[in-house]
Design goal:
The strands form three sheets. Strands 1, 2, 3, 5, 6, 8, 9, 11, 12, 14, 15, 18 and 22 form a 13-stranded parallel beta sheet that branches. Strands 4-7-10-13-17-21 form a six-stranded parallel beta sheet. The relative contact order is 0.11. The two termini are about 20 Å apart. It is built from two helices and 22 strands. With about 270 residues, the protein is mainly beta.
Length: about 270
């Protein structure tokens, strides 16, 4: 089993502003640290600079940002996209940090954006490993858009969510989180959710979380682990009827390990 771990010693950068801007030197992490924008280093800049590195760098947050919110510049910069291993860690902030995709409408219209769109690198490379810690992700709306998957996170990477809250997001599939990892010969843990909360998200399928492991219809020995986590009050809207299917898994052979607290309506495992 290929566990969701990465033991390499890697570079790190500290986000120092809640502004969503790119006005520093993002040619590399060292260049950004040496030449940040006038408002400091933004999360978007840190991710862009990290993209130039082949390693899985760590992005953390200045203590002055504790409990604050980063509102994405939806109309000007859009969602935050990347295709590499990375750790975004607000675990050092007692109250974490919120990243708001700034949904412009109260209903699912697809006129908004998601927070993170994580692609797999090309050329047959192994799926990256992305770890998110201490984040609240909200305000995504990609319903009726293309692709309309993952209101807060759309991931082709193996994904760890630790001490995160995913709430008030909308999509056609995976209202909060959508994960689809290409099949591999080695069994992998494709999703791990620890000590987190997913609530009040909305989709046609998988109101809270949707996972596709490997190719549709193909057997896989991959796993997901859900530990100390609450998934509740996420809704599915289909044929003008509201149902309460919170969690959808599409795969024949995917194993689920750990414990999920069912504090709200029913969840669906296929």
């Amino acid at each position: 089993m290929e566990a969701l771990e990465d033991r390499r010693v890697l570079a790190s950068v500290t986000v120092s502003t809640v502004a969503d801007a790119v006005n520093g030197n993002v040619s590399s992490l060292s260049a950004l640290i040496a030449s940040p924008g006038p408002d400091g280093i933004s999360l978007r800049e840190a991710i862009a600079a990290s993209a130039t590195s082949g390693a899985g760098d760590t992005i953390n947050f200045a203590s002055s940002l504790n409990g604050q919110s980063i509102t994405l510049a939806r109309a000007f910069l859009g969602e935050i996209s990347f295709a590499k291993s990375i750790t975004i860690d607000a675990g050092g902030l007692p109250d974490g940090i919120t990243i708001d995709a700034d949904d412009p409408t109260p209903n699912r219209t697809g006129t908004g954006i998601r927070v993170f769109n994580i692609s797999a690198p090309g050329g047959g490379s192994a799926p990256p490993l992305v770890t998110l810690v201490g984040l609240t992700l909200k305000g995504g709306d990609v319903g009726d858009s293309t692709p309309a998957e993952g209101g807060a996170i759309r991931s082709e990477a193996r994904l760890i969510l630790r001490d995160c809250t995913i709430k008030e997001n909308e999509a056609d599939i995976g209202g909060g989180v959508f994960v689809q990892v290409a099949g591999g010969a080695t069994p992998r843990e494709v999703l791990r959710i620890e000590d987190s909360l997913t609530e009040n998200n909305d989709a046609d399928e998988g109101g809270g979380v949707a996972i596709i492991s490997g190719s549709l219809g193909a057997s896989t020995n991959d796993t997901i682990s859900i530990i100390g986590t609450t998934i509740r009050n996420n809704e599915v809207v289909a044929q003008f009827q509201r149902r309460s299917f919170e969690f959808r898994v599409v795969s024949s052979g995917l194993r689920i390990e750990g414990q999920m607290r069912k504090d709200g309506p029913e969840f669906l495992l296929n």
